Amino acid sequence: MPTTSIKEVAQRAGVSIGTVSNVLNRPNLVAPATRQRVLDAIGQLGYVRNDSARQLRAGRSRTIAIVVLDVANPFFADVVRGAEMEAEKVGGVVVVCNSGEDPTRERRHLDILEEQRVQGVLITPVHDGPDSRLEQLIARGTPVVLVDRGSGHHNRCSVAVDDVLGGRLAAAHLREQEHTSIAYVGGPASLRQVADRQAGAASAIGADGELRVIETATLSVAAGRRAAGEIADLPARQRPTAVFCANDLLALGVLQEMTQRGVRVPRDIAIVGYDDIEFAAAAAVPLSSVRQPREQLGRTATQLLLDEINDHGRHQHRHVVFQPELVVRESSSRPYRRPARATARG
Predict the structure, then answer these.
(1) Smallest Cα–Cα separation from 86: which of 159, 137, 139?
(2) 273 and 182, same structural domain?
(3) For 95-152, what is each residue's pLDDT tens digit?
């Protein structure tokens, strides 16, 4: 069906194109009788304003974008929800892009977003080096805020959680439960969050403890199950007695695989995740987890982005860091006791 043009509306109403434009954008400038004639013509012809084209001509948009590592991860769903809540307050909308932890895919998203002239970009980057696509985006005038990632860069804001502290809280809890051999499941190690959580855990292990690192290709349930298989296949005396996972999806995968193999949680092995997504508490064995303020991350990042968009040169970049909280549930609540060695009887 052909699209009605603004020219046709003007002809039907017997006015100029400029008058129709004023009715749509500045109705107070048009006499009431003329305004009504134009509105009648719009109704008769079924004219719909092409708002996106109008915004592009003006060099602006009411759209902001958020690029996440994994759109299937409930953690990012909550972050997006927080971003949407803030954007809606000013009549904006949020477009969600999924990088899938793939730098090539992330770059393609950023190319398209720049072409579409979004107001700004919220992003959890796969990488954030000095020559990254983000630097080009910022240099050409698009505001960027890092989400769930700290930044030492002076030209962008960031909102994150202290992941080193989060890793330390998880490992310290497991040490308090008398675990000395702990597996850290997470990857890829190139992700800053994964590396920081590992560093925090290592700092809490102590001289008599061991942190066995099992790197995964992704932060998914399937990757967690594969890692759990590696652990369960170890000889009993070499097997870690606790697992700290870089996120809850990995931890849920570990829990599923251990349960399927008849390994009891937490009696035989304790598990702690990270993020405290809704599914953590609802698992068959409720999962201990390091809680992040997920929606607050999205809201705060969007507030910083909107402030930069509207600042007219007065915006000062900020790096907001929230503190994590350990939530202890059944999966790690039982102190570990080493099985007593059998003794020969005469």
Answers:
(1) 159
(2) yes
(3) 999 999 999 999 999 999 988 889 999 999 998 766 578 888 888 889 999 999 887 7
Q: What is the CATH number of the domain that holds 256?
A: 3.40.50.2300
Find the domain containing 15 and state its range. 6-49
- CA pair distance 122, 134, nearest whole angstrom: 11
**What spatial distance separates the first Cα and last Cα of the chain, rounded to whole Å?**
96
SS3 annotation, the chain: CCCCCHHHHHHHHCCCHHHHHHHHHCHHHCCHHHHHHHHHHHHHHCCCCCHHHHHHHHCCCCEEEEEECCCCCHHHHHHHHHHHHHHHHCCCEEEEEECCCCHHHHHHHHHHHHHCCCCEEEECCCCCCCCCHHHHHHHCCCCEEEECCCCCCCCCEEEEECHHHHHHHHHHHHHHCCCCEEEEEECCCCCHHHHHHHHHHHHHHCCCCEEEEEECCCCCHHHHHHHHHHHHCCCHHHCCCEEEECCHHHHHHHHHHHHHCCCCCCCCCEEEEEECCHHHHHCCCCCEEEECCHHHHHHHHHHHHHHHHCCCCCCCCCEEEECCEEECCHHHCCCCCCCCCCCCCC
- What's the rounded Cα separation, in Å, for the pair 133 and 111? 9
Q: Using one digit for the tens of pLDDT, what is the confidence trace for 259-302?
A: 999 999 999 999 999 999 999 999 999 999 999 999 999 999 99
Q: Which residues on adjacent β-strands are paired with residue 158?
A: 146, 319
The answer to whether residue 346 is domain-embedded is: no
Say yes or no: 42 and 71 in one domain. no
Tell me if 220 is assigned to some domain: yes
Q: How many domains, in total, are found in the chain? A: 3
CB 220 within 8 A of CB 69: no
Which tokens in the block code for residue 184?
């850290």
Cβ proximity of 79 and 109 under 8 Å: no
